[in-house]
Design goal:
The complex is a heterodimer of chains A (323) and B (247). By secondary structure, chain A is mainly alpha-helical. Chain A has a single domain, classed as ABC transporter involved in vitamin B12 uptake, BtuC (Orthogonal Bundle), CATH 1.10.3470. Chain A has 13 helices and 2 strands, in the order H-H-H-H-H-E-H-H-H-H-E-H-H-H-H. Chain A has a two-stranded antiparallel sheet with strand order 1-2. Chain A is globular and about 55 Å long. Chain B folds into 2 domains: 1-80 and 166-247, P-loop containing nucleotide triphosphate hydrolases (Rossmann fold, 3-Layer(aba) Sandwich); 90-163, no CATH class. Chain B is built from 9 helices and 10 strands. In chain B, the strands form 2 sheets. Chain B has a 6-stranded mixed beta sheet with strand order 6-7-8-3-9-10, with helices on both faces. Chain B has a 4-stranded antiparallel beta sheet with strand order 2-1-4-5, with helices on one face. In chain B, strand 9 and strand 10 (223-228) form a beta hairpin. In chain B, helix 3 (96-106) crosses helix 4 and helix 3 (96-106) packs parallel to helix 5. The N and C termini of chain B lie far apart (37 Å). Classes of the chains: A mainly alpha (323), B alpha/beta (247). At the A-B interface, helix 6, helix 7, helix 8 and helix 9 of A face helix 2 and helix 3 of B.
Chain lengths: 323, 247
């Protein structure tokens, strides 16, 4: 057994709780918390993927929700055609087919938009990623066949071997295992040689180029990996809510994903999960008091950025403010 | 001895300012060639064009016989040209050892390797340790780069350039801001490098330049007004007039 540091133990502990508590609530007859946790876990996967490029790569993408949306529509549209005809080549309820479509299209979208966006830096990168995401937003909004602004009700969940996604517990366990795998994959990537280049380029791009690394290609590769993982989260989200609408990929959703990463602790394994958990809890608690729950949420974020640079994880580790 | 780097009629201007005005220079393999000149003479601009950070307006640069004038910076680095920066350029949030290990990694094939943890790859770490020992930073290996002193930053800057294994090192004022003792140590270190690498050295510290250089070129207003051995440069009337300020 490899020895773990304090952060490692916190990570293992939180993940154990997350793996055990929601099924326990379900078992004692409280399904609500399981569903809440399912949404949390799926958002956490999206946040983990954003953390790869934002936290470790320094790419402040403001269009990450587009990948969730593309992944979700790529799950919903085949089901729609299966039920209502038309475009039979894409009609399918086969989960693996839908999954391949979700991940493949998200990765492709990341490749094309990343190739262009990553030629810019700073504010321009933020604006251009947001612009690409808004293009997808308006595309789906204008596609009346798939419900346009109202969204698309998904008649049937993905059919998978051995797994029945209509069972909330199985749905949760799949999402949870996916989160663990996504965290493991990102952890592996950022510590590999590739990851060292990615992190080095975040700190000092010119130095890395001078060493002989084509940092643009490394960034683009990370961007595509993040897009693919996030598309997977979209596929899960579509299966979870059996509904997809353009609002899933609006810029405010991208902003929420950014909040999660920064609030939880950017460039850490557990940070995005803590951020997603905080987001879900705050949303759930505050929105029961007021529809203006974003205001206190925003104030909290400002507080974290100003006083706890390491995010929620930084607080748990007991590090002082400003690191 | 063969020519490693050949610069012909290199020109670069920024708006109305001509920073490089028809520079011709060739470096022989293994020599330490110093470039001196007053502030604003275009020394750093010249190095930036050689490393690929800036693109010249006209002229050509060839390295080992191949024209590299239009090659991007990262490809020149792969060919064996590295530079150090006048203003320390490190990945400050990474450890000293990580900084050097990244440089070792740069000359160890491509880095699109996603599985194995980079910090557990022994030949990268060992080589990086070895370079740190050479520059005298071995006991600092685990510290974040940001925590080093200025003098140590300059040493690390050289260590990173050295670790790439590049044949040609473009050193932009390695002594910048160093006090007497640190400066002397750096001179000793560069002396030890002489003959093993080809070095183009920009330096204001004249003691260092005359102690180290095989040949010296004097750059004034983007033009090389003289090239020769340290003794020749010391005796050159134009140089005294333009640079050393004697009349």
């Amino acid at each position: 057994m490899k020895s773990l540091d304090r952060t490692g133990w916190i990570t293992v502990g939180v993940m154990l709780l997350l793996g055990v508590l929601p099924p326990f609530f379900y078992w004692i007859g409280n399904e609500f918390y399981l569903l809440l946790a399912t949404r949390l876990v799926i958002l956490a996967i999206a946040a983990v993927s954003l953390n790869l490029i934002l936290g470790y790569g320094g790419m402040a993408s403001f269009g990450h929700a587009a990948f969730v949306g593309i992944g979700a529509y790529a799950m919903g549209i085949p089901v729609y055609h299966e039920f209502y005809g038309g475009f039979s080549a894409a009609a399918s309820t086969n989960g693996l087919f839908q999954l391949a479509l979700s991940v493949g299209l998200s990765a492709l979208f990341a490749l094309i938009t990343g190739a262009i966006s990553l030629r810019t830096r700073g504010v321009y990168f933020i604006m251009i990623t947001m612009a690409f995401a808004q293009m997808v937003f308006y595309l789906f909004q204008s596609l009346d066949e798939y419900g346009g602004d109202d969204g698309l009700v998904i008649e049937m969940r993905s059919e998978l071997p051995w797994i029945n996604l209509d069972n909330p517990l199985q749905m949760y366990l799949l999402a949870f295992l996916s989160l663990v795998l996504a965290m493991g994959a990102v952890h592996m990537i950022v510590n590999s040689r590739f990851g060292m280049v990615l992190r080095g380029a975040k700190g000092n791009d010119e130095r890395l180029i001078t060493l002989g690394f084509n940092t643009y290609l490394y960034r683009l590769t990370a961007y595509v990996i993040a897009g693919a993982i996030c598309g997977y989260a979209g596929w899960l989200m579509a299966n979870f809510s059996t509904f997809v609408s353009p609002s899933m990929l609006g810029w405010s959703r991208s902003g929420e994903l950014m909040f999660m990463v920064i609030l939880g602790g950017a460039a850490t394994a557990l940070g995005p999960v803590l951020g997603a958990a905080a987001f879900i809890l705050i949303e759930e608690i505050l929105s029961s008091f007021t529809v203006y729950w974003h205001l206190p949420f925003g104030l909290m974020l400002i507080g974290v950025v100003l006083f706890a640079r390491g995010g929620l994880l930084g607080m748990l580790q007991g590090r002082g403010p400003g690191k | 001895m063969s020519t490693l780097l050949e610069i012909r009629d290199l020109k670069k201007s920024f708006g109305g300012v001509t920073a490089t005005d028809g520079v011709n220079l060739s470096l022989t393999q293994g020599e330490l060639h110093a470039i001196i000149g007053p502030n604003g003479a275009g020394k750093t601009t010249l190095i930036s064009q050689l490393s690929g950070a800036l693109r010249p307006d006209a002229g050509s640069i060839s390295f080992k016989g191949a024209d590299i004038t239009r090659r991007p910076a990262h490809r020149r680095a792969r060919l064996g040209i590295t530079r150090s920066f006048q203003i320390t350029s490190l990945v400050m949030e990474m450890s000293v050892l990580d900084n050097v290990a990244l440089a070792v990694q740069a000359c160890d094939g491509h880095s699109f390797r996603f599985i194995k943890a980079a910090r557990k790859i022994s030949h990268l770490r060992e080589r990086a340790q070895e370079v740190l020992r050479q520059v005298g930073l071995a006991d600092r290996a685990a510290l974040p780069a940001v925590e080093l002193s200025h003098g140590e930053h300059r040493q690390l800057e050289i260590a990173v350039a050295l670790a790439t294994g590049a044949e040609l090192m473009l050193l932009d004022e390695p002594m910048a801001g160093l006090g007497g003792e640190d400066s002397a140590r750096m001179i000793d270190f560069l002396k030890g490098l002489k003959g093993k690498r080809t070095i183009l050295l920009i330096e204001h510290d004249m003691d260092a330049v005359f102690a180290l250089a095989d040949r010296i070129s004097v750059l004034v207003y983007g033009r090389i007004i003289a090239t020769g051995s340290p003794d020749e440069i010391r005796g050159n009337a134009d140089v005294r007039h333009a640079y050393l300020g004697e009349e």
